[in-house]
Amino acid sequence: MAFELEKLPYAENALEPHIDAETMAIHYGRHHQAYVDNLNKAIAGTDAENLSLDEIIKNISKYSGAVRNNGGGHYNHSLFWSVLSANGGKEPTGELADAIKEAFGSFDELKSQLQSAGATRFGSGWAWLIVGKDGKLAVTSTPNQDNPLMDVAEVQGTPIFGIDVWEHAYYLKYQNKRPAYLEAIFNVVDWDAVAKRYQEAK
Ligand code: MN
């Protein structure tokens, strides 16, 4: 069973002006597609062909670097597209809002911690909002295409929101201004989608 690139849940220009259509076209159509293709090549003829992506990611220490990089790339980008929306930018509500208040004090503090995690990640990687093993929300970051679901992650948990801080995610529009991208992206976060992931994870 080969992995496939899921259809993008909105048009490539839907997140303009915060994420431009050209960046989205290259990021989704080329980068994400390459992670899927290279993951399929890396697991071809192995037992991993019969596993779900979650099963592979949770036991990633058993696999090659190619599976880690491309399996992580496929997992991370699938999550990323699903938590963005043209109708985003509102603040979380309901149980997720309560959990954010409990863990961080306020939504602004969560936003600030995510921006700081993304800005200080040297080189390429991700900033994450996770449900930790204690059931509480936490902010963390990972290098390259690792993620907190991996058994090799320094801080482990279930990611419910992530921000891609690879240059390919923002360079065409924001060049070296990663903090400007980290501000703009909050205009397109779909907190209802994050709340759904929170319910599943906790
Ligand atoms: Mn990316």
From TrEMBL:
A Gene Ontology term for the protein's cellular component: cytoplasm
Residue span(s) of domain Manganese/iron superoxide dismutase N-terminal: 3-85
Keyword vocabulary terms for this entry: Metal-binding, Oxidoreductase
Domain Manganese/iron superoxide dismutase C-terminal: 92-197
Catalyses which reaction(s): 2 superoxide + 2 H(+) = H2O2 + O2
GO MF, one annotated term: superoxide dismutase activity
Function per UniProt: Destroys radicals which are normally produced within the cells and which are toxic to biological systems.
Family: Belongs to the iron/manganese superoxide dismutase family.
Protein name in UniProt: Superoxide dismutase
Phylogenetic classification of the source organism: Bacteria, Pseudomonadati, Bacteroidota, Sphingobacteriia, Sphingobacteriales
